[in-house]
Amino acid sequence: MDALIYEELPAVYRTPPEILEEIFLYCWHDNSVYTLLTEAPFNLVSTCHRWRQIATFNLPIFWSTFHVTFTQKACKPPLPTLKLWLERSRKLPLSFSLIYRGRNSFDGGDNRSTVIEKMFAPLELLSEHLVRWRDVYVDLSDLPHNTRFRPSSLLEEELMLETFAVRTFKPHPRHNTHSLIPNYMNWISKLAESSPNLYKFDAYGDGPITRLFGINTPDSVPWIRLTILTLEHVSETLALHILQSSARLLECTFADLGRYIDWIANLPLPQLRDNIVVPRLTTLRITAEGDIDSFWDRLIIPSLQELKVYMLPGSRQWHQGDALVQFFQRSGLILDAELAGLAISAQALMSVTRGPPISRISLRNCNIPSRSLGSRVKLLSESLRELIVIDKATIDNELVKLLTLPDLVDNGQHIEATDEQESILCPKLEYLTLVNCINATDGLTSQMIKSRLMHNCETLRQLKSVLIGFSQSGHAEDFYQLEKMLKEGLNGGVSIKKGVTLARRKTQLSD
């Protein structure tokens, strides 16, 4: 091209391809959860021929993440398009979600075998690139109950799968041992077992997970490899068996933990240890509908830093306050996984003065008396930075006074440490949420917060954010004082009577 004409072109046409590639990469996002045709790379390839060439041939990462939905007769994106994307991705690892969306039975007008062949075409196409699967989510819970799952046979070589999420589903009365669910779940287990790099596994849905996990069957997810785990609709016993086999686990979520019958009949149960130690686990989140006291009785987590327990609305009365306190005591006593086999006596538990190094604890709808809650706070006092208590718990005068800082005397330069100061509860507390749980005398709660906000002691942390909700109207002084603090710069909010907010809520800070 003539140099003069080239200089007269707009800058976008004179930009080197390498610069355009960098710009395009800033526009790209992971398409494995959802795909928007108005965003990169699809808007780029429809702009002009030059951009299309760069996005199509120079950036294979654009085509390595995608979202696929299919029915009995159709696929989105269409199979030819999906095949083209797979070719454009070259040899890069693939991240995708595969979801079936259809009715619960076959259309009567088509030949059944023909429908099955069409239906599993997207899975068969993706299975041709099985060795490149890296981050995958599979949801086939809408598959017709009268079909047979036909996965392609797995390759002999190891897979590069790192994160794997699946959705289970309840069996239909017409399901049988040679039908959909067993084949589907065995395929999932074999995929996980063939993936030495698998570190994250998620299973959602309320299907019979024992057939998937194979706790007492030959097929099994490799629990020992996992560092992140999420399971939905699982029994306390099965959860403990899984934790017993997950020595490397760092983060774990059990949603809808309960007393379900999830063992395969006529097969022996593996033996549970008396003390189940999960040495590396730092984050545990639990959602449950009823008592899960037996879950805490054996569990020991010495490195736990974050605990979230949410009892679902309408759940039965919760009677595990003492069980949770003893869990903290055992976890504080056992500092090394080698001690897991030792018996823990009641006398040893009584001597424990601190629990695991929990910095954030969230208890919602847990029906905890003040005595039990106070015991937990004392055990976690040294490390606790964020305390969240919502609904059904009791924060009374005694506990509020324990959290209130004593009057600290300034000698003109710094605050002197005293024996009283050294015994202060939760010296590192920075975030506090108390909603519909305060049963203390009016004025004590605001005084406690003010004491933690106004001090200038270098060894104590100041509150950064508070969220207070009073379920009773007799807290006028508390409300007035807290509203004043909010106007003076405290982050958070205050409300009185459930559902009626009386002070503007500012942006809450988080870690």
TrEMBL record:
Origin superkingdom: Eukaryota
Entry protein name: F-box domain-containing protein
Organism for this UniProt entry: Rhodocollybia butyracea
